[in-house]
Amino acid sequence: EVGDGADVLEYLAQAILQEPLVGILLDPQQIGHLQDLLILGVALSDSLAVPEWYVAVENDRIIGGAGVIENDFHERGDLTPNVCALFVEPDRRGEGIAGAILGSVCEDMKRRGIATLYLVTDHTSFYERYGWEYFCPVTCYGEPEPSRMYIKKMI
């Protein structure tokens, strides 16, 4: 546990990303039982949309997160940017936290002028619940079998 929202951002910016803090997104979620959840974003640049990192914080505990990067280690460099590393702590799964994180990521990227996001996964049916569509198979570096590439258009 790292403290309040500002402490979490500073911790992420300095300890994890090894970069100074440039900007933040504070997005309180009003989804029933998730009313105390904050999605915090750490921007590495005022002008660039990626890379961007997000964490879900509840009661001073990081319970999930995700990132947006140019390429999530796959052969299709034209399919960019990519949502990556979506994670929710095992004891908090099944509560809609992943959906809240994805929603915040999409809204922030849309605000930054990004109209389309991609993600690579081996999951089926999970991302469809949040408006993502299967796009194509894609081979990730070092993987023998293709993974699934999803697309989200934020019109």
Largest β-sheet summary: 8 strands, mixed
Give the rounded overall mean pLDDT: 78
CA-based shape? globular
Fraction of residues in H or I helices: 10-25%
Strand content: 25-35%
Note the gap between the termini.
37 Å
Over all CA atoms, what is the radius of gyration? 15 Å
Tally of alpha and pi helices:
2
Low-pLDDT segments: 1-5, 15-33
- Counting DSSP E segments of at least 2 residues, the number of strands comes to 8
Characterise the protein shown here.
The structure is a single chain. The radius of gyration is 15 Å and the shape is globular. By secondary structure, it is α+β, with helices and mostly antiparallel strands. Helices cover 17% and strands 35% of the residues.
Show the helix and strand layout.
Blueprint: H1 5-16, E1 23-28, E2 38-43, E3 52-58, E4 61-69, E5 82-88, H2 97-111, E6 116-121, E7 133-138, E8 147-153
Parallel strand pairs: 5-6
Antiparallel strand pairs: 1-2, 2-3, 3-4, 4-5, 6-8, 7-8
Sum up the structure in keywords.
155 residues; single chain; alpha+beta; disordered N terminus; globular; eight-stranded mixed β-sheet
What does this entry show, briefly?
With 155 residues, the protein is an alpha+beta fold. 17% of the residues lie in helices and 35% in strands.
